[in-house]
Amino acid sequence: MLGTYITFPELLIWFPLVAGIFSFLIKKDDSVKTWALFASIITLCISLGSFFYTNDINASNVSYEWLTSLGSSFAVGLDGMGRLLTFLTAIAFPIIFVATYNNKYKNAKAFYGLMLLSQAGLMGVFCAMDALLFYFFWELALIPVYFLCSRWGGEKRIQATFKFFVYTFAGSLLMLIGIIYVYQHTSVRIEESGFHSFRISDFLAVQLNMQQQSWLFWLFFVAFAIKMPIFPFHTWQPDTYEQAPTSTTMVLSGIMVKMGLFAVLRWLLPLFPLAVARWDNIVIGLSVFGMIYASLIAIKQDNLKRLVAYSSIAHIGLMCAAIFTRSDTGLQGVMIQMFSHGINIIGLWIVIELLEKQTGVRKISELGGVAHKAPALTILLLVIALANIALPLTNAFVGEFMMFSSLFKYNVWFATAAGVSIILAAVYTLNMVQKVFYGNTNAVTENVKDINLSQTVILSVIVVIIFVTGLFPQPIFDLTKDTVTSLLLRFG
Amino acid sequence: MSNVLESVWVIPIFPLVGFIVTGLMRNYLPKHLAAFIACSSIFLSFLASAYVFYIVKDVTSNPAAIHYFDFINTGALHIGFDFKIDHLTSVFLLIITGVGFLIHLYSTAYMSEEQENDYAKYFSYLNLFVFFMLLLVMGGNYLIMFIGWEGVGLCSYLLIGYWFTNNNYNNAAKKAFIMNRIGDLGFLLALFWLIAKVGSVDFATVNAGIAKLSTFDVTGITILFFVGATGKSAQIPLYTWLPDAMAGPTPVSALIHAATMVTAGIYMIVRSNVLFSLAPITMEIIAVIGLLTALLAATIAIYQNDIKKVLAYSTVSQLGYMFLALGVGAFSSGVFHVMTHAFFKALLFLAAGSVIHAMSGEQDITKMGGLRKKIPVTYITFLLGVLAIAGFPFTSGFISKDEILLNVYNHNKLYFYLAVIGAVMTAFYMFRLLFLTFFGGFRGTHEQEHHLHESPKAMTIPLIILAVLSVIGGLVQLPHVFGGHPYFSEFLNPVVKTVEHTDPKLAMKEYVLLIGTIIGLAVVYFFTKKNYAVNKYEGEYHGFKKVLANKWYVDEMYDAIVVKPLLAVGTFFKNVVEKSGIDGFVNGIGKAVNYSSRQVRLLQSGQVGAYVLLMVIGILILFIVQLFL
């Protein structure tokens, strides 16, 4: 560690924000593309820099006043979990921009501007130490996505965006009501503002009884469950993933679903420990059922994008269940898996995008024999697919192992039922690999070309991350240890 | 000395490097170079393994695990990347690298017609397999073992589906992976159980913490471990993938699906023998499942006409014998049979590969016949393999199988007689295979007959070495009665306590078995020779024989009971619950909002009377609410 340096969280938020606004001013499409890539790489460098500095989350991290009259301030900070997820956000964007570099977007400046704004919002969500600020960034991250889906999406983008909007808007509203309720129960900061406070430390100091906690719990949980998503709040997701432009889908599935998990860990769990202990079995039950439900649907999917969407629902279900076991093993597993899932699913989308760009087809049954034409792509895809089914030595294995282990300790039958999804995941993933890549080529896949240099590089980067995290996961555990320890303290 | 053992990481590193080099350079490596890299990497591992054996043989205690780095080190869970090298490991190391090297060597000729990049790809997969297999047996805790465990499953998947244009092969590969995954879930649940109760998956820590486990825990954990073993080692009910796995190239069948990977389940149970010894119920289950598998697979093998399928069912059956041995507590006999089986079954598969090679790809034994004069080396080595597996006196198979049978006899007489019936069936289907293939008249096409040729040296040399081992390899465990000494079980003693034979009638039993074997083999020999050393063979497809030839319709049964219902549930979720249920509800809300806003708008009619009426109704409702609450 080189020392403490508290401006990292601010840099991570402000840089993409300013870069995003600046994008709108660039005239040429090619320059805006280069600019966005350049900006995202700078953000990645900032994020990497943050690893060399400590930032004590409990120290004064109010940078400056903001809506003082409401008792809110621009309080940001990074603990281990925040650092991990800001790093995920920072590394995902350059990967996405490189992978989709050849795509031509209408009104590119607005497209890339919105993408960067969304990145700023995500960074803010992961850094916010103030509930109102958190809510603000939550919306800042989402609003650009509505525009991206509705303007650059596929054929049925309007319906899909509408559904996405209704779901997430309802969720946000519930969360806002909850935040205001807790806010009103915080102690008044007489010497500072004369108002209640949105500061996380003040929120955590609020004493709520079981009944209050219970209904607040459900308000927040539904809001976050929609974002993750957890069964039965998930039906926006396959539609949106299918209809959104792929780079937006990558942001949505790779990073934004982590917002829901992150919010549960940052806010829900520590704020309402009594209610969590009371309702955990229902949440875990829903998550586990959702895992099997989504896996079975994935087996019957013929649409590549929807297959990945349902597979993601199953994976997220496990993470949500593990969070609610409230065990060190489970939480550490969730931490590493939040990162790994983001990397792996972005990798899957890149491959699907490449295939669809070349063949115009996303139906599994219409493809076949791609391995003949694109052996390099096939090998890289195979590694990512194996990571998706958590094969040992890939990044997802460690996390899943720990999460299942914690679930087993919580309840044997939940763990066994959830374990069935391990088998089902192998079924749908290998089915997909077989039908798309093996067999003989057909009219659709006859002219498929293998990946070019930049695509090889970007997929190789993902594969390297998969193996490195799979073999040496310990640095991530060390990183997130502080978050997990302080979380568990809330439960005594 | 322990310092030397700390460098054992080189053993798996050689094949890993071989995998990386041949894999990444597959488009640039000429064939002979790819083959050289792949073979020499395994040979170096073999030399290192031999050295490890040389060191370990003088160690009498149970050596400690070697810790390389922390794999998972969190508040509640501590799992290191550890290796453990003891007597059991060193036996497996020699089998894997020794037989593995011979099969690599054989492959250089067998696969020579492949294109250059496919050729390199094949060898890179084969190297990767050896790497994972070594990891499996070297792991110092269950997690490292599991990494190897799933890794070999992956390589098996890749190699079964090596010719990926054929969709049947791909289906076989996928089936193998998924059936294995079902077993792996059992393995994982056992690990979670251990973590929950003992807090560790380390071999030494688990053995030391066994007091923390109740009888229920031990029984549950061992049953779950055994479920894992039924997947990997193809036992009832998860054995159906192994015969299909014959879709892979024949050397792959020899290495993965006969000599090494499928014995992983036996290794795992022997590795956990302390745990299993405390679970009599599990041991009984293992014995029964092993016995039933041995018998079931043997019945199926009798009427299979694909040369590799016969050998595949024979493997399933022999694995059943190994589990039977474990189930009756004869751990070292199980491991001994793993070793002898690795010799003679690898030999049989490679010789079968040589036959297929000679027959230009034909695998149907009804279309062979009379090959013994055309391919004499293959014939003689195959014959020796058949004698070994059938238990011809003093071959390796005789010694290992008789040791199992004697142990079974001491445990349960019924099991013993059933196991003997199985042994007779083994002899039967192997002689049937031998006669149909090498005796009688040639039943193939004229073109095939014209092309018949003995295989090149790279193939016949491994055959000869394995044939020698199949014949004499058992002598390290020759019973005292016949003038030998059980060196093998003595060697394993630090890991598994051998059952001491203080039986006064032991010598008599050995002689009875010897004489019984000779008589049995003679009967089978004459019967099969009469029926199968023929010029014309129509096959047997009627009545009960048809049921056997169709493998008791087990695949069809699984399909109807498990696969179809699951898919139906999936369809139901996808088309009904998802679309009409949840989405219907969500869209319903949307529509309801739309509809009600349209209706509510009508209320703003501008008529004062209507407003007054609504006001009155509102006040009334408020009043009523106040009244009741």
Helix/strand layout:
The complex is a heterodimer of chains A (492) and B (629).
Chain A: E1 3-4, H1 8-23, H2 29-50, E2 53-54, E3 62-65, E4 73-75, H3 80-99, H4 108-127, H5 131-152, H6 157-184, H7 200-205, H8 210-227, H9 236-243, H10 246-271, H11 273-299, H12 304-325, H13 328-359, H14 370-373, H15 375-388, H16 395-410, H17 412-437, H18 453-471, H19 474-489
Parallel strand pairs in A: 1-2
Antiparallel strand pairs in A: 3-4
Helix pairs in contact in A: 1-2, 1-4, 2-3, 2-4, 3-4, 3-10, 3-13, 3-19, 4-5, 4-10, 5-6, 5-10, 6-8, 6-9, 8-10, 8-11, 9-10, 9-12, 10-12, 10-13, 11-12, 11-17, 12-13, 12-16, 12-17, 13-15, 13-16, 13-18, 13-19, 15-17, 15-18, 16-17, 16-18
Chain B: H1 2-6, H2 10-24, H3 31-56, E1 66-73, E2 78-83, H4 87-110, H5 116-138, H6 142-160, H7 167-197, H8 203-208, H9 215-232, H10 241-244, H11 250-259, H12 264-271, H13 273-277, H14 280-302, H15 307-327, H16 331-358, H17 376-390, H18 396-411, H19 413-438, H20 446-451, H21 457-472, H22 487-492, H23 506-532, H24 544-549, H25 554-603, H26 608-628
Antiparallel strand pairs in B: 1-2
